[in-house]
Amino acid sequence: MTVSAAGGARLRIRCAAAASSAVRPLLDGHPAPGRILGCSGAAAWIAVADEVVVVAASDAVRLPNGVALGIPSGRAPLGFDASALDCTVGGGGVLLPAVDVRVVRWWDPRPALPAVTPAEVLRSVAVLRDRVAGPPDPGLGRALAGRDPGAVLGAALTVVGRGDGLTPAGDDLVAGALAGYGLIGTALGDPETARLVGAVAGPLDRAARERTTSLSAALLRHACRGEVADPAAGMLRALAGRGDAAAACKALCSVGHSSGPALAAGLLIGAAAAAGREML
Fold this sequence. Notes:
Layout: E1 2-6, E2 10-20, H1 24-28, E3 32-39, E4 43-48, E5 51-56, E6 66-69, E7 86-89, E8 93-95, E9 99-107, H2 118-128, H3 140-145, H4 149-157, H5 169-187, H6 192-211, H7 214-224, H8 230-239, H9 245-253, H10 259-274
Helix pairs in contact: 2-10, 4-6, 5-6, 5-7, 5-10, 6-7, 8-9, 8-10, 9-10
């Protein structure tokens, strides 16, 4: 981390970072104007073009649209004021009012899962189902298991935008169900699961842009492509038999107030449906 002057006027901290390959086209592309939508002590979320990029401290959860700074939240200068909402995204990083972020490495937000059988997935789901206190299933499990895109979209739209915060619990539930269904289905050797999610993705995105926050709508788009936050990736690997399922579930459920449990509940719904059963 170094301190530099930008344009001879404002001092910025220059910081190396890792970033999700899902947002690499934006970060490596031609510099474009961005708008800071909000900021916490550990992260800033930025609208650029038609997407949202999240710049976060090294101790924050890595999101599928994330840029992880090489410094922890106590040292990350991500605060802003009403006169400093603009930034620049591209050219190899993100130029914020107080920090010049340069991406030096990448991670893949789409977890690579080992081949697995339906019986193995259902056993893992059975172990975890009583450990997750997420919102109730609005019918996603039945619709996914029945391979009915219209019913999946209808069930999803009953909960999208419902809940408090930047990522309402209803959105997290839907994101988990669709990501779990597509990714676990692929691990099962069933390409139809990804095709069904792809059929739902467009209309779901159009509705989400009007019903929920910009950040949450972006995360739903990533989920439909199988791109998830790190703790969700860990739980998906465990559902496929790689890792301690109980520990992975606990780690995900500890994220946020409602986001982690809702996302975990959705992953279980999607995994069970991919294995051919509605989770009762």
